[in-house]
Amino acid sequence: MTAARRELGTALAGCAVAGGLALSAGGQTWATVTVTRRPPLPPVTETLTGSSLAPLVPAAGLLLLAAAVAVLAVRGAGRVAVGVLVALAGAALAWSSVGVLAGGVDPSAAAPGERRTADLAAAWPVLCVLAAVVVLAAGGLVAVRGRRWPAMGRRYERSPGAAAAPAPARARTDEDRALDAWRALDRGDDPTADPADEAPPGPAGDPAAGPPGRRR
């Protein structure tokens, strides 16, 4: 059981860390494009974020964070399916990041008389590729070993036939006593009478008879 929990924790950490890194990287500047125009027009600089160059990166990050929760919530075949989904998210993350590194920033789309140059900040897509490798390993671990792992909340499940614990008694308040008095008045009883002073019922067969020593 200790080994299973360790594997579960490793897979969860891999999904959560990689998902957070993908979301963070998607908002960073991956490339700076400079457009040189005809004089006397000054050059124009444009920054491109990871989400604009590789939209699958933040999408994969959201999916991985959701998968980290799903791994805990499901069991059996459902957990295997989540593992496959995690592996697919890792593949999409790697493919999108490698595409940017291999020339995803195209500086050639310029107007006549303009020249575009792109300066790629390779650190972010490289980090996403490394995160994708971690995700692929985590997804394979979930798909292969996930059936043996414990599920969230199993120790809190009630065993069959277990009796429910009685609810603790609530202290009576003045409002409760006032309600009891009104109910007694509705029944025609005296709410000020002490129940201990009430006479016991008469002998069987004589409902009109009073207590011993007081018969007429």
SSE inventory with pairings:
Elements: H1 2-26, E1 29-36, E2 44-49, H2 50-53, H3 56-73, H4 76-101, E3 115-120, H5 123-145, H6 174-187
Antiparallel strand pairs: 1-2, 1-3
Pfam family, one: Trp_oprn_chp
Region (Disordered): 156-216
Biased composition (Low complexity): 205-216
Number of helices: 6
Q: Which spans have pLDDT < 50 for at least 5 consecutive residues?
A: none
Order of helices and strands: HEEHHHEHH
Q: Briefly note the structural class of the backbone.
A: mainly alpha
Mean pLDDT: 78
Task: Trace the largest sheet across and list its strands.
Answer: 2-1-3
What share of the residues lie within helices? 40-55%
Q: State the shape.
A: elongated
Beta strand count:
3
User: Largest sheet at a glance?
Assistant: 3 strands, antiparallel
- The amount of beta strand, in percent, is 5-15%
Q: Roughly how many Å is the radius of gyration? A: 37 Å
- Head-to-tail CA distance between termini: 81 Å
What does this structure look like?
The chain has 216 residues and is mainly α. It has a domain at 2-30 and 50-109 and 122-152. 51% of the residues lie in helices and 9% in strands. The chain has 6 helices and 3 strands. α4 runs antiparallel to α5. The chain is elongated, with a radius of gyration of 37 Å. The model has no long low-confidence stretch (mean pLDDT 78).
